[in-house]
């Protein structure tokens, strides 16, 4: 696996995590100042995490389109390469057995 392939996936994952952490910090701040409800009973942490996930998903979808497309292109290239190798191996085996 080349460094370029790895870096696209790592970059996308790191940016996705950064967006989630940013949303989490904003939601915690809004809950602390009372702009958002604290949840029911002991569910405050779960509430904050779920709300951060709900907010970060569409943001990631819009903001990380370029990184997602780059990662997808690299995955497609790798899958096509693997398929070509398998086909070449199959043809070689067919030629040897006949």
UniProtKB/TrEMBL annotation:
Sorted UniProt keywords: Membrane, Transmembrane, Transmembrane helix
Name this protein carries in UniProt: DUF4229 domain-containing protein
Record field: transmembrane: 12-33, 45-64
Keyword Transmembrane helix listed: yes
Cited InterPro entries: DUF4229
Organism the protein comes from: Streptomyces pristinaespiralis (strain ATCC 25486 / DSM 40338 / CBS 914.69 / JCM 4507 / KCC S-0507 / NBRC 13074 / NRRL 2958 / 5647)
Organism lineage string: Bacteria, Bacillati, Actinomycetota, Actinomycetes, Kitasatosporales
């Amino acid at each position: 696996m080349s460094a370029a392939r790895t870096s696209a996936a790592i970059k996308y994952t790191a940016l996705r995590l950064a967006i989630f952490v940013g949303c989490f910090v904003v939601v915690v701040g809004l809950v602390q100042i009372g702009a958002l409800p604290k949840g029911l009973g002991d569910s405050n942490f779960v509430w904050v995490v779920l709300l951060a996930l709900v907010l970060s998903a569409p943001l990631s979808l819009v903001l990380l389109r370029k990184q997602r497309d780059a990662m997808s292109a690299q995955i497609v290239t790798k899958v096509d390469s693997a398929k070509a190798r398998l086909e070449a191996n199959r043809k070689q085996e067919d030629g040897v057995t006949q």
